[in-house]
Amino acid sequence: MTLQFDPYIQQVLAAGAGPRGSSRFAAWHPGDVYGLRLILNDGLSQLAALPSTPSVQTSAFTAQHADGTSVDLRWYRKDESAGGPAVVFFHGGARIAGSVDLYDPLVRMLVDWAGVPFLSVEYRLAPEAGGAAAVHDGLLAVEWLIDHHETLDIDPARIAVMGDSAGGGIAAGVAVLARDTGIELARQILIYPMLDDRTVSPDVELSPAAAMFSYEFNRTAWESLLDDVPRDSADHLLAAPARTPDLRGVAPAYIEVGELDIFRDEDVRYAQQLWRAGVATDLHVRSGYPHAFDVLLLGSPSAVRHRDERVRVLQSF
Q1: Is residue 4 part of a domain?
Q2: Which of 3, 13, 97, 212 is a good FRET partner for 64, with 20 to 30 A between their CA atoms?
Q3: Is the pLDDT of residue 26 over 80?
Q4: Residue 6 placed within a domain
């Protein structure tokens, strides 16, 4: 029996959800990174339809690299959360698209569900800033949060990094860089993470199901990110953490990926790499689900189950 979409997912995709629902999709061609940015941002703009969360408050901050480069940060908190864990969050968008603003409704929802404060990072995008720039922005955000833990009333020993898709790959890279710089993170929460620039050759079983993120999209994004980055350099390994030769000592991991996601195999392999390195790793492969399945499922009967699982993870460190 061939791999098949979950019936609810199939229905939502048939109604025009995902990149193919963008008016720009038909004119797009592989290699067009700016066209892909517009298509992905069109899809992410649909997050604005999520329910409002008046109990979640936000504040704007800025962190600065030693060279003067600024990184904007947005702090999310529910009134009752104090003195506990916090999450440094990286949005999705294939490393070339997305923003803190586009992800604002989703981050608000996660904070509202779990009661755990989030710091959302406006990391630099490719092609304007390629290589490991976003990972360094991520570590800067972690360091900033540690430095400001008293003001923000969080426990610096209970900081996790989290992201979905491209953001999951950045979170994984930050976990490696944090280990290398002596920062002990409590958790890395990787939601269908984009980890490996070698996932560019179509899989005969997965290609027909790549409705939310295709191999052509992936190749275009990675080529944009790694243009002029020397192969197997430190920047390359941080940008594509699946290439990291030694994962010993990184934070315990939680990984989720759909069975019909082109990132499935690289994510499963990454979990295996973590296990071989002695890193506690909780891996979940979701049957019948493609990339970005959690967003597609928000109106479904399964939504409560997935919400409860995310809350469990966010309250587990």
Answers
A1: no
A2: 97
A3: yes
A4: no
Token pair listed for 166: 């491209």
Out of 17-26, 28-37, 155-164, least confident range:
17-26
Examine residue 7 and state whether it is found in any structural domain, yes or no.
Answer: no
The 10 Å Cβ neighbour count of residue 281 is: 20
CB 97 within 8 A of CB 194: no
The percent of the chain in helix, strand and coil, each rounded to the nearest 5, is 40, 20, 40
Sheet of 187-191, strand order: 56-64, 70-78, 118-121, 84-90, 154-164, 187-191, 253-258, 281-286
Contact 254, 314 (CB under 8 A): no
Number of domains in the chain: 1
CA–CA distance, 222 with 198 (Å, rounded to integer)? 9
In angstroms, what CA-CA distances link 22 with 16, 25, 29, 181, 223? 8, 5, 14, 42, 23
- Which one is predicted more confidently, 230 or 16? 230
CATH of the domain at 149: 3.40.50.1820
Indicate which residues carry an active-site annotation: 165, 261, 291
pLDDT at 20 over 90: no
Q: Is residue 15 part of a domain?
A: no
Sign, CA torsion 255/81/297/198: negative
DSSP reduced 3-state for 87: strand
Residue 184: count of CB within 10 angstroms of its CB: 12
CA separation for the pair 222, 203 (Å, rounded): 17
Over 70: is that where the pLDDT of 1 sits? no
